[in-house]
Amino acid sequence: MTETQPALLAENINVTFGTTQALKNVTLRVDKGEMVALIGPSGSGKSTLLRVSAGLQLADSTSGASRIFGDRVQEKGKLSPGVRRARAKVGFIFQQFNLVKRISLYSNVLIGALGRMPGWQGVMGRFSPEDRKKAMDSLERVGIAEYAGNRAANLSGGQQQRGAIARAMVQGAQAIFADEPIASLDPVSARNVMRLLAELNEQDGITVVVTLHQVDYALKYCRRAVALKAGEIIYDGPTSGLTRDKLIEIYGDEYIGVL
Ligand code: ADP
Ligand code: MG
Would the CB of 48 count as within 6 Å of ligand 1? Predict the structure, then answer.
């Protein structure tokens, strides 16, 4: 696929849980190199949109398609044959520090290389010297190389999130999808993680899609925000347009500085 393909194109996505319509005909396009915040109060559909976009969750059969860098993820509620290839281009970061707790930080980061290996190689987990060097280089880059030998369980939340970012780098991810990556962090760690995402976006051209309920961080680190309310996009534009008055207009009492 060509360079002109958007990093993400999710078209006419519907998701229903029982009687809840979590997403209502949502279309999201993110171009290569963008850093976009998905904002909205709890339950507005941020996580569902991110998960469906990456094929971690199926949309309803009434939906259109989701594609990542042109590779089809799902269409009409069915996973596409190319989903593995599409997913390999995305590094995931979640609120609940998704590292393997009982193994070292270094091993966790090295695991990222499996995402680049085709079929059986990935299963066998044969790491090359280049993979190992890349793992250490990435740990240096995110500033936690000194903890390489520590078990992930013994690291702080901020260190674990940086580890997840280093793992995405080893994977060679062209995009990072981060679902509330700073929601469980103290303000200093939160700032550092957002700075790191912004740096990877600016310096390495990695596309970042990040869900945040802390609007301040979206305003500070992202140029574009997509605001969700009850499963619908009600604002998609520059974060500079999200003034306090605009946020109150959109969310009413739900907006109290945070969502
Ligand atoms: P957000 O990330 O913005 O908090 P979610 O995408 O998690 O919102 O949820 C959107 C809506 O879908 C909510 O009403 C939520 O309760 C519902 N929902 C999400 N996941 C599930 C699920 N696995 N089962 C049932 N309902 C769900
Ligand atoms: Mg969520």
Answer: yes
